[in-house]
Amino acid sequence: MHVLLTGATGTIGSAVAAELLAHGHTVLALARSDASADAVRALGAEPLRGSLADLDVLRAGATATDGVVSLAFDHATPDADALAASVAQEAAAVAAFGDTLVGTGKPLVVVSGTPAVPGRAATEADPLPTDGPVAGRGRTVTAALALADRGVRVSSVRMPRTVHQRGTGGFAGLLTDAARRSGVAGHPGDGTQRWPAVHAADAASLVRLALESAPAGTSWHAVADEGDAVRDIAAVIGRRLGLPVRAVPAESFGPFGPVFAADQPASSAHTRAVLGWEPRHPGLLADLELLEP
């Protein structure tokens, strides 16, 4: 399959590119700069020059390929207005892909986060949230899944709060960044809230499986660790960086504060049983031990 991939130079995207190429697919990867194009070529993919805002470029790429994996999302600024703009940009890009693929039967893989369900681990059958700082991403995915009735083999891979690789990435990575800036490995509240996690290489294998075989209109959970306590995550970060560990106000984490403070374990039992996906790489706490001091 010749696959259009956005976000190919990110933690997840680079792993997805490697996974697709290793399994005989070819990759056309969106690249918004010369440096990104060089990085894409280094991965073994072909660059498509443009940004997520270049909707005509996205439509042309979707037309020229056999399927689309949409991963790109601008996490650069943890500011509420910037976050809203990133959500809107992603929504427009996914809508452009969807409109282009209507009636083709081609696969479209979109991503969101796993939902939080009070009192239990979220499952693939649970709906995505409709309010909160990143709820717009859920609305984007829900709209995309409706294209299953219009001849698009669309599926959703729900990523946990932390997709990690060598101790970096995801919400745990944001905790690490905050610790380096503040001199404290902080956790919101008492830290008993749980975050699901997955290694980037395992997430990539699920994205490939969804692209190759997921039925239209389905959702899957890329969850290896059902729920690591945030205080345990902070404890490893503190030990690796030589910093004290203590509770800090959720507001310290800006617009992500309410999400950081929430208990949000998630299950992938259905995904494993149906798609045969099985994580094989280190869990989050073990991977955090690779953090550079």
TrEMBL record:
Domain of life according to the entry:
Bacteria
> InterPro entries given for it?
Epimerase_deHydtase (IPR001509), NAD(P)-bd_dom_sf (IPR036291), NAD(P)-dependent_oxidoreduct (IPR051783)
Which Gene3D superfamilies is this protein grouped with?
NAD(P)-binding Rossmann-like Domain
Q: Which residues form a coiled coil?
A: none
| Domain (NAD-dependent epimerase/dehydratase): residue spans on this chain | 3-215
PANTHER family in the record: NAD(P)-BINDING DOMAIN-CONTAINING PROTEIN-RELATED, PROTEIN YEEZ
Report what the protein is called.
SDR family oxidoreductase
Record lineage: Bacteria, Bacillati, Actinomycetota, Actinomycetes, Kineosporiales
